[in-house]
Amino acid sequence: MSAKVPDLRKKTPMFRAARHVVYLFFQLTYRPKVEGLERVPMYDGIIVASNHLSNLDPPLIGICLPRFIQYMGKIELFRIPLLGSLFKALGAFPIRRGQVDKKALRTAIDIVKSGGCLLMFPEGHRSKTGELGPFAPGVATIARKSGGYVVPTAICGPYRLFRRIVVRFGEPISAEGMSSEELTRLTRARIQELLDGRDG
Known about the structure:
Elements lengths: L12 H17 L3 E3 L10 E5 L6 H8 L4 E6 L8 H7 L2 E4 L6 H12 L3 E4 L17 H9 L2 E8 L9 E4 L3 E2 L5 H17 L4
Parallel strand pairs: 1-7, 2-5, 2-6, 3-4, 3-5
Antiparallel strand pairs: 6-7, 6-8
């Protein structure tokens, strides 16, 4: 892949080593198939907006995209010795859950503004049924404030050992001229189409 991708410079030796280990893990367990990768911008600030099935979702998407993905993690994880440093090396940054964390929001906006790749789960939590739940407005807010594209993404599960899991990327959505409500509705509709196999 081209070295011109702006966030490649953040791929530290620790990140590269961890990615190889995670890649091997998924190849041995869930044999992921990627669809629509050609739709994902490689030179622009983007928000990868995905449904949320498992704690395995962030590393799964991380090995499916040839970009350095950054994402939010609960602040308690960063207080654990060594583990906090590992999460930061792998692209995570802390967020205080249960409140409006302005610092985390600003970090997210800055990542996308600077041409980076931000992973978010608009449902805000894992789905217990596998069905797509209601969306919070966070993705739309960050997209509108950063000027980045939203890339609807579907993890077509469930996770079953030695059964293939599919990750589908949809056409990027520009937030320009859209309200937060419109962008949220459109993002959810596009992800549902990807889950149903009705896009691409």
